[in-house]
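Issue: copy button drops trailing tokens. Both records pasted manually instead:
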Amino acid sequence: MVLVTVMRILTLLKSGCKIVQLKFSNPIDHAEINNRNNHFDSVRAAVLAQSPQEEQKVIDLSQQKWEWMADKNVEELAPLFHDESKFVHMSGAWKKERELEIIESGSIWYKNTTVHDTDAEVIGNAAVVWSRITLEAHVRGTDVSNEFTTTETFIKEGNDWKLLALTFSSVRDTHEIEH
């Protein structure tokens, strides 16, 4: 009963209500209140994050990322890419700074990305976006076109989604993403 009352009080406080005086018949366990408060925050965040609106946000962000890559717009990409992000390509895997250098220099120029199908799942503060794409690129002096399924892992920091990982998997043009 006391725990339920404490949870209700915490809910009221979070919604902006002010409580002038609290009286408890039992000693207050501040650690337990903090633990419950943290649990409440993570449950609330998980419920909110799993909404279709959050899935659409990361899908839209993924699409915007392809446009920024085509435009070699590293000013927009840099804050999107998590500082610990990793990129897995056909020719290797590397971290954020190298990916930005490659994009800016045109060593790999993502000229056009046609997204055929996309699916996303949001779980808590993590999101995964799978996209079936045709990528037209200019790679080290040669124009290429490849079919990929990309897997993008995002993590939410504050109100912003950050790209933590991007993996290109080479697939046949008949490959489908199961929804």
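Record 2 (pasted manually too):
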Amino acid sequence: MVCKRHFTFIIFYLLSINVSQQILAAPPDINKDNEVKRQLTYVSYHAVESTPGADQVYSAILIYDLQTHKRHNLYEIKEAIGGLNWSPDGKYLLFVSNPRQFRTRIHVIDATGHVVYTGSSDTDDRAVWSSDSQYIAFQSYRQKSWEIMTMKFDGTEQRQLTNNTYEDYLPSWSPDGKEIVYWSRRDNDNGEIYVISATGLNNRRLTLNLFIDNSSVWSKDGKSIYFISERNSCGSCNESWGVFAMDSRGTNQRSIAEMNVEDWFWNNPPRMSPDGTKLTFTPKGKGMYIVNSDGTDLRVLDSNPYSLEPMWSPDNQYIAYESDVNGYTVVNIIKSDSSGKQQVPTDPNDFAGSPAWIP
């Protein structure tokens, strides 16, 4: 049976009725900005017990228009899905499905819902777009260890960049598309941050210490890399996770936000605003925070401990994210100044998650 509690990896919402062009209540704060077109995609799901003790998940990707307050189905599949990610040019939508337990598969559809690519391997995960919308980087377990791979958006030109017996995770493209930053355990079990060229050459380590560094993302100008670390912990005290930054070559490593939390979702990197001036992040069990990219003006956006997956709107004004209400996951929208919090309308007993703004 499906538990109502929030899961770490992907939580979704599936609409079980026909919602095509359904009129929804207008979120008043968001509706003031009618001159900007804002559309949000999110995943919906419900589960039906197919056999005793086993559930069949029905998922749909919905598009919600913040000005017209209408929503409609873009794509449906009989698998749990998450990780929605639009190409920067807005032509293609990337997502990952779970065909069966502990298996993940990459999909690409176009803006009309037509299938462009469905992965043949069910060991690929954590897929991200290059800035030119042509290539996808992802982590794969095809070689019985997690490696970093790339491919073109239609599944062609697949290339394995790393090759070792240790785990390489969580790729993130540089803004110019020439390099990929990722997390690896090859030097110690804690894991360090590495950069490799998009051709698989010039692999180099950026961090080295006794604590965990992971979940990295590039700044918009490509000059810095932001990441999650527990490096301010000590051997006799509790872990102390936080957000850190360094120059793109690994120098000038510095603290951005010390959160004094004992745990962090390892696959939950900070998210940078489109203009590169702010970061949002969600330390485990502490809610959602926002901070300037230089570490100033740290604030709480939502204290709900189940807040996850913050995604910036293209105009830097809003953040969509997953949260929890009475054991059900929902999608909320909030302004970056902490005002105007709204819940995307959902139907009773349904779940919502994995928000992604259409560019």
